[in-house]
Amino acid sequence: MLSHGLTSVEAARRLDQDGPNRVEGAKGVSLWTILLRQVSNSLTAVLIIVAVVTYVIRDWIEAGVICAVILLNVVIGYVLAISLRMT
Predict the structure, then answer these.
(1) Which domain holds residue 62?
(2) What is the pLDDT of residues 15-73, one digit of tens each?
(3) Phi and psi dihedrals of 31, rounded to 5?
């Protein structure tokens, strides 16, 4: 028998007195909020500015690569945030 911890009687008494051990009112973050956080970070903002500048100077290939990096960054961050939300 364990010499540490609550007895079954004490655990039952505390469960009756205090209720189950749950966080009240906690709600998850919506998928749209996760996506908005991924798009609105500082790295993405800088990359968007750089992409606009490269489009203005008509450097199409570099602008396309930068847009691909932005998309990849957002998708990877979104997938990781969703997987963290599920745990």
Answers:
(1) 29-86
(2) 999 888 877 666 777 889 888 988 888 889 999 999 999 999 999 999 999 999 999 99
(3) -65, -35
Per the structure, the count of domains in the chain is 1
Residue-wise burial string across 24-47, b where 16 or more C-beta atoms lie within 10 A, e elsewhere:
eeeeeeeeeebbeebeeeeebeeb
- Indicate yes or no: pTM above 0.70: no
Burial of 66 (0-12, 13-18, 19+ CB in 10 A): buried
Residue 39 included in any domain: yes
